[in-house]
Design goal:
elongated
Length: 96
């Protein structure tokens, strides 16, 4: 019985590891795109933050989270963290 549980645990952890790797790669691709946005904003003296867009994205992600049965508060915290990092990158792009 213990071996079955250990095997199942190892299998589940392997799946988690795959999901974590996929998340890292997806985030890297997302940040490549937001870096281009930051460069565009810097070239055109646009503000780094766009509160209206951010609010729309948070609302959209909360709705998607509910559909996926993921805690919308968690999803919002996650997206807010990403947005904060993106804005930091945009500010850095403006400084050169």
């Amino acid at each position: 019985m213990a071996n079955d549980a250990q095997d199942e645990l190892a299998e589940l952890r392997a799946s988690i590891d795959n999901f974590d790797a996929a998340l890292v790669h997806l985030l890297a691709e997302r940040f490549k795109c937001t870096q281009r946005v930051g460069a565009l904003k810097a070239r055109h003296a646009m503000p780094s933050a766009d509160p209206e867009r951010e609010a729309q994205q948070i609302a959209r992600l909360r709705a998607l989270s509910q559909e996926a049965r993921l805690d919308p508060d968690f999803a919002e915290k996650f997206l807010t963290f990403i947005i904060t990092e993106v804005i930091r990158h945009h500010d850095a792009a403006k400084r050169g």
